[in-house]
Amino acid sequence: MKLHEYQAKDILNEYGVAVQPGVVAESVDEAVEAAKNLEAEGASMFVVKAQIHAGGRGKGGGVKLARSVEEVEEHASNILGMTLKTHQTGPEGQLVRKILIVDAVDIEKEFYVGVTLDREKSMNVIMVSSEGGVEIETVAEETPEAIHKAWIDPTIGLRPFQARRLAFALGLEGKAFKQGVRFIMALYKAFEETDSTIAEINPLVLTGDGDVIAVDAKINIDDNALFRHDDIAAMRDIHEEDPTEVEAGEHGLSYIKLDGNVGCMVNGAGLAMATMDIIKLAGGEPANFLDVGGSANAETVEAGFRIILKDENVEAILVNIFGGIVRCDRVAKGVIQAANNVDITVPLIVRLQGTNAEEGKALLDESDIEIESAVLLKEAAEKVQSAIGVA
Ligand code: GDP
Ligand code: MN
């Protein structure tokens, strides 16, 4: 689950990570109020920041410096309600419903700090770079030597010397060095205890006064651990999520929309991946990933059909179910019932394999619904091929 910058900063603040003070607002009035309160606490410049689940907001016009409360008002009215396009939102952009007003920091230097899991090493990794404020992917590609890493042994945890080494690699000195070490230690603790999959600060800044502080914050939480973080789970903002993916989640389906022309519905993530490969081999492109899980019954299959058919690019649907615990004849009945309830406007290919596969195929063939049935994956691929009209 992704969090907004303001939510990530709230969490980090609780862990003692130095973040810029700020207030979130959903209207221009609230933004003005927030700026006045920050002014009363000593702020003279502000930054108005669009809160969307995507980075690159600055370049897209979603981060603006304001020299007065009046300028905060002006930027707030421009940014709230705008459709912000960044390299992470896709061409359709994302509607801005919330903004964060912060006390502007005087930036001397920008750095990058990120924590994530290194799957190859089976260890968390902390990465720092003196090239902050730019995309870390670009730094990794063009100047990999500018990224310093420390891997954390899960049985020992982050050791202070590792944090010191990273702060040193950033060229921090004196008071800033001490703050940098503390920052890295606190950030890592927050990452671990919140079950984050990523905690990224870009930029981490050195201020004109020699302080080290996070100006931006990105945290993603492992969905599988949300059950033990009620407070964080409550921060979910479904406006930022794909509505079809939200609907799929409500039916217990794992659905991810893709750009292709062949919809697919499969039980099991591994088989789903293999099915997507088969679609490609047949000359098509998968329109989605959809795992119906263990329960390939009439209700889940029907929900799956409705979700797949929302996508106008879909020219055919391939259902590929392995009957292990579920028997294929039962799945076939479910598919027929579901197809009766949904107006399926594209060719439907159903491949059932496993327990009672032949009985399942017979049921499909006998039904009055137009279903191309298959038992072998090769047959299914050929039927997909002719459905979408590629030679
Ligand atoms: P992003 O574009 O979505 O990554 O948003 P950021 O929060 O990283 O802001 C983008 C850029 O705006 C930063 O890299 C900074 O250069 C600048 N910026 C953000 N906050 C401040 C601030 O308080 N003071 C100054 N001087 N610049 C800021
Ligand atoms: Mn940033």
Please, could you describe this protein's structure?
Heterotetramer of two alpha and two beta subunits. It catalyses: succinate + ATP + CoA = succinyl-CoA + ADP + phosphate; GTP + succinate + CoA = succinyl-CoA + GDP + phosphate. This is Succinate--CoA ligase [ADP-forming] subunit beta. InterPro entries: ATP-grasp, ATP-grasp_succ-CoA_synth-type, ATP_grasp_subdomain_1, Succ-CoA_synthase_bsu_CS, SUCC_ACL_C, Succ_CoA_ligase-like_bsu, Succinyl-CoA_synth-like. The protein has three domains: 155 residues, D-amino Acid Aminotransferase, Chain A, domain 1, CATH 3.30.470; 84 residues, ATP-grasp fold, A domain (Dna Ligase, domain 1); 146 residues, Rossmann fold (3-Layer(aba) Sandwich). Helix content is 38%, strand content 25%. The radius of gyration is 26 Å and the shape is elongated. The strands form five sheets. Strands 7, 8, 9, 10, 11 and 12 form a six-stranded antiparallel sheet that branches. Strands 1-6-2-3 form a four-stranded antiparallel sheet. It contains 14 helices and 18 strands. By secondary structure, it is α+β, with helices and mostly antiparallel strands. It binds guanosine-5'-diphosphate (GDP) and manganese (II) ion. Manganese (II) ion (MN) binds next to loops.
